[in-house]
Amino acid sequence: MPESNDKSTRSGVIKTDGFEHLLEALAGRGYEIIGPTVKDGAVTYDTITAVHDLPIGLIDRQDGGTYRLLQNDQKTLFGYVVGQDSWKKFLYPPKHKMLELARRDKTFNTVRDGGKPGKLALLGVRACELQAIAVHDKILLGGPYADPDYRTNRENSLIIAVNCTRAGGTCFCVSMGTGPKAKSGFDLALTEIIENGSHYFLVESGSDMGAEILSEISSREADEHDIRTAELAIATAAANMGRNLDTNGLKELLQRNFDHPRWDQAAVRCLSCGNCTMVCPTCFCMTIEDATDIDSQIAARWRKWDSCFTLDFSYIHGGSIRASGKSRYRQWLMHKLANWVDQFGMIGCVGCGRCITWCPVGIDLTEEAGAIRASEIGK
Amino acid sequence: MENLEKILTEHPFLSGLETRHIKLITGCASNVVFQPGEFLFREGQPADHFYIIRQGKVMIEIFVPQKGPIAIQSRGEGEVTGWSWLVPPYRWHFDARAYELTRAIALDGKCLRQKCEEDHDFGYELMKRFTTIIAQRLDATRFQLMDIYGVHSEK
Amino acid sequence: MASTLKNSKSVIANQREPMVIRPFAIKRVVNETYDTFTLDLIPAGHQDDVRFVPGQFNMVYAFGAGEVPISISGDPADSTRLVHTVRAVGGVTNLIRSMKTGDSLGIRGPFGTGWPVDQAIGGDVVIVAGGIGLAPLRPAVYYLLTNRDKYNKISLLYGTRTPDDLLYRQQLKKLRARFDLDLEITVDAAGGEWHGNVGVVTTLIGKAPFDPSHSVAMVCGPEVMMRFTVMELQKRGVADDRIFVSMERNMKCGVGLCGHCQMGPTFICKDGPVYRYDSIKDIFLKREI
Predict the structure, then answer these.
(1) Which chains touch C (3 or more CB pairs under 8 A)?
(2) Does residue B155 surpass a pLDDT of 50?
């Protein structure tokens, strides 16, 4: 887990053709590298071992219900923005065996806890994703009860952030104050610079480990020009956000509009497919499933991702509390943008735009919130 | 000998009534006692009274063949029971049976119906009060119908 | 034996990991009704005390089958056994019902907030229980009676479906015989042999002997029953910040991490299940929230 330590903040430069040195430095320290790679026409996060595993030269076109990868001519390593995966796939995996119990005569005891995760280097973490990790830290570590397996994953992971120099079609990190520049919570932060035929990375360290790796792989110190060019590229991304969300008084706005007719409109379109909850980097709802082996002698407890869009989610005593699709869509949106603030002191949305891109019918939560806000004007 | 008028004046059901109206009611009132198991009224009989229970317990019942008497609602101390005297054809729809020694004030419905016709102000005051009681009974009955404690079918 | 309990804040499950399942053996099973039974459990293979505040619940685990949230129904002064009243309505609860003395269940907890037994000191207490809602209220009744001299009038109003559905019959008889507690029972429907009250539990509130301006009300039962009960209490003049209800939702983890038990912005497993009515008034009346 990166610690913020002023002494270790340093900037350096690595050339693109030296990028594999970064991968070697990580692998050499025993880290499995998880990074962006292409699968089934989208950028996903998976194990990578070499630079050619990265989505070289690919950029994404995103809009409501639309995602396309296109080739650009610049051989960028990080030209895409975000795919459907988020880092919760690794820090809070979709299926995780929490423990095993074994029968002993008429009673039972716990025989196995958690599981030993390996060390992971997360390469390509966007600023919005850093905030999403911070949100999960608050929920899973910062309350009266913590998740020990999440803590172990966080302690055993290294974060290499990448600043966005291009905005995605559904991005609104600027509205949420979460990007496009990574400010903290990383071991290293890279900014990809392509200029006048040269292609290199400005690298900033954010922790002792980051500084150590940086000094090993950096080809030279960063100079004023590097820093300014990087800032400009990031500012370009900030100026081209695909979406906008006015967060002023947003919590109160939604909480006083629980019965707004807009929810009925969204309900007509929403399929309750739950895609939004799967791609959202801050959704944390899970379920606990118990299973035994064939003899019923060993029982396992599994933690699995769950979604508030299912009827099962709110089921008690022969019925679901949120039976209608409308109530489930409303629950998700109100939790994300309003109730989350009451619960955790921060908003649940980081402006990554995934829910808009991966919704099959293109429902856009910035549009929904905006419509409710607009309907109050003039009242 | 208790003062019926005093008792009626103090009863919450009749609170707010003018003295002359209380006197009208008192003129139709008498003390009654029911032994345990005795019926106050029976289904089908002419409904000529209503009762204010002073002490004891009365059960509103209906007799169902093969099942016997089914208890619908109980009435206790201070409660008013019986409104069929107000509604044509003025016949009881249910049984009412004393489950304990019950002392009540019986009010002559036939007598009161007559007085309501003669004095519409008086009639209106009584109607207002009975409407509230019937509304409360309806709410309670609907609530009972909901079977809220029942087990719902599970998947 | 008087004891002071923190009742409006969560009593965290000691320092234990809340996901650790501790085995408890069934010492006794009492069949209360055709579908409801009470288990007396004792620690199996560990020496832990049973400590909880009235109103809290455990996650009860049947080996390999699953877990259900069940309120604790025992006497908080008894640290040697854990009492749970369970209604067999689904897979896990029916499996638990098939278990015999000596078999083990897993327990995680206690979780959640408790009844305001300390806040009620010095005044009257009116307890309104509907159906199995009496089970989470029983520890509060135990506590009040253990500390009887601290309270004025205590009324217990209990409504259930039929006389066959009454819980804790022997105990109710004993409570009825006490002069320092006013017990009224009613059923929604009965045959001719029932000589008690027939009608919904809200009909008992109007006549119950408590002073609305110096009372605390504790209400538990199906949500619609609690809604009507709160209305009747308000009609009698009990303030919203003196009425307490116990809410229920689907629960998986019991510790605020799985998201299932949310009701608006609140997590019932850790902000509840006992709530002061004024704090959830707005959410309570919203449908499908």
Answers:
(1) A, B
(2) no
